[in-house]
Amino acid sequence: WFKQRRARFLWVGVIFLWLVFCVVVNLVQRGNVPVQYQVYTSLHNTFPLEAIAEDSAKSSEVLVSFSEASAWLSGTIEEVWKPIVCGNNRCEQPFERPHFRGAPGFLSMCQSDCGWADTLYEILVVLTVDFAGSSLGEGVADVLRLSASWNLCLRDEKRAEAGLESECWYKKPQSFKTTSGEFVEQYFVVEGRWGIRVEGDYYGLVQGKVLDIQNASAPVELPLSPSWNPCSP
Known about the structure:
The chain has helices at 2-28, 33-46, 49-58, 66-80, 111-114, 141-147, 157-161, and strands spanning 121-130, 149-155, 167-168, 174-175, 180-189, 193-199, 206-212, 220-221. By secondary structure, the chain is of the alpha+beta class. The strands form two sheets. It has a four-stranded antiparallel β-sheet with strand order 5-1-7-8, with no helix packed on it. Strands 2, 3, 4 and 6 form a four-stranded antiparallel β-sheet that branches. Strand 7 and strand 8 form a beta hairpin. The longest helix is centred in the first third of the chain and has 27 residues, at 2-28. The radius of gyration is 27 Å and the shape is elongated. The model has no long low-confidence stretch (mean pLDDT 79).
């Protein structure tokens, strides 16, 4: 009798933890109706509450050990929340995206599942630095140069909604090789909200612009938001 009661309490505890887990997932994804529907259908197919309730009503005894209940719960979670794998013939955006060349920092690219990006835009990133011209003097120009870095990043709203970070062109932020001068880089990018992420430029000595060079003979400077103006000395 004691073992039966203990087994029932363990089973109730497992069900309670499962419900708490589902509620937390629902709260995190609140407001995103398509994602909520996908999660609900996955849970319902794997965890048919109606059938379990019907079986429980027919049986007056529930004998299950804690290890069996834990194994069942673990197996159920793994069945619903499977890791995203490149190569399963399903393009699962925003975790995966179509492939395009030259962006080693975009780990979500999966050619086998999502194919190649349809349209690419040719842009030119122009960065101008003058670390030697700071009010601190030329003696600290190298210190300022070494502290500053930059990267080209894509702000993806769908990735943000899924709790994922923005992806950048380079795996690691790029440093500046000289204390003053102009750095020019050419990119073929997919459509989206691209931005230049500058870090460590505490005195505002890095400025830049982005040019649309689809028509190489007539490049067009693209508007930046917010505007990028150098700091006053």
